[in-house]
Amino acid sequence: MKILLLEDNKRLSNLITEALTQKNYKVDCFDNGKNALNAVHNGYDCFILDINVPGIDGLTLLKEIRVMDEKTPAIVISANVELETIKDAYNKGCDEYLKKPFYIYELELKLDKFCKKTKNTITLPENYIYNLDTEILYDENKEEIKLAKKEILLLNLLIKNIDKIVTFEHIEQYVWEGDLTTNENIRTLVKRLRKRLPKDTILSQVGVGYKLNIHQEGI
Q: In terms of CB atoms within 10 Å, which end of the chain has fewer, N or C?
């Protein structure tokens, strides 16, 4: 599981990173909210956000995240214990507010509660299976279908937004990780991924974007 950590206290950031890395989490650390915002589209399973950091504060960042991503869990960590701040954090979309100082074990429990995938596979049409942990696609005969990096990123993005249109802009930011591309390049990528999947698994809305045509719970 991939986590974005925003924490400008280097000692605490190192402690959290070391503890979570030992539990096989991948942690990307930021000490500046603006830099963290630029990385939001890199495919995270959970956000851990301090409030008082340089650049953009954690709550403003959380508000920006929720405009782009309504589902990915977010845990706010802060020494601020004022009721209005806590209420503001929940109103902006945090799933848990953890008051400093805290035991690392407390944070691990919150991650287990909010951020772990409840399923590690998703069933696609015609009994294709995609493993969310290994990012491997299997056909109906359980044979592996090789996917390129951008194909994996696009499929992950579509799965995170099942039955929702994913716009060209969102695909550009997520799959190209902030680099500029063209709608034609995106269409070409979608065409390649469609060839790996059963017919009509990816539906398009002309001029807007694409969505995955399946229904799943617990993703």
A: C
